[in-house]
Design a protein that fits this description.
The protein has a single domain, classed as Alanine racemase (TIM Barrel), CATH 3.20.20. The protein has 9 helices and 8 strands. The chain has an 8-stranded parallel beta sheet. Helix 6 links the parallel strand 5 and strand 6. It starts with a helix and ends in a 9-residue tail after the last helix.
């Protein structure tokens, strides 16, 4: 059974291999975002010890509890919020995270812009696109994305790219290709796409950030799944 260090090294190797074989080999190697949500803290500490830099959390409150002190101790850390963001948690998210991957509605964008003016800073943001147009999933529709991105940029929000989570029942490559095309239309280079089961495919379509949890840490804490 592999340990966390072995898992991270194996994934980094696969990232570099897939990137080298892709049409994007001249671009920077995609960043590995270790999805630490609902994981035991000792696993996170193991990942930190081997130099993992980027971590992803779903909930602001859990992220505050886990990362507030660690962000002071590990100066090179970058925390990314990758779960749906409630409007009333906007300020806390912006004060804590280096990047928010789930900007998905104009109300949230306006709130972020207002708070950014008050704070004098704003984390980088990715717009979440609901490529499968699933009713139960957050994100702007593909047709709405260009207009939405323009509105966000007009508010001086630092939009760096797009994010998607393909439908479980559909071929992920179709959604990665779609997100890549939309990002090009928007003039954006960042693509947050690909998880434990499909990150190699995502890299072949130009992913700049992949979000991997179980392949690094194993199963989540059962008591926190409720």
């Amino acid at each position: 059974m592999f340990g966390i260090e072995d898992n991270i090294n194996l994934i980094l190797h696969e990232i570099c291999k897939s990137h080298k074989e892709s049409n994007f080999a001249k671009l920077p190697v995609p960043k590995l975002v270790a999805v630490s949500k609902k994981q035991d803290d000792y696993k996170i500490l193991e990942a930190l010890k081997v130099g993992q830099k980027y971590f992803g959390e779903n909930r602001v409150q859990e992220a505050e509890q886990r990362w507030s002190k660690k962000l002071e101790m590990y100066k090179n850390l970058e925390l990314r919020l990758i779960g749906p963001l409630q409007t009333n948690k906007t300020r806390a998210a912006m004060e804590l995270a280096d990047c928010i991957h789930t900007l998905d509605r104009i109300k949230l964008a306006k709130n972020m812009a207002r708070i950014a003016q008050e704070l004098g800073k704003c984390p980088d943001v990715f717009v979440q696109v609901n490529t499968g147009e699933e009713q139960q999933k957050s994100g702007v529709t593909p047709k709405e994305t260009l207009t939405f991105v323009k509105e966000c940029l007009d508010m001086d929000l630092p939009v760096r790219g797009l994010m998607c989570i393909p439908p479980m029942s559909e071929e992920a490559s179709l959604h990665f290709a779609l997100l890549k095309n939309i990002a090009e239309d928007c003039g954006l280079s960042g693509l947050s796409m690909g998880m434990s089961s499909d990150f190699e495919k995502a890299i072949s379509f130009g992913a700049t950030h992949i979000r991997v949890g179980s392949a690094i840490f194993g199963d989540r804490v059962k008591s926190q799944e409720q």
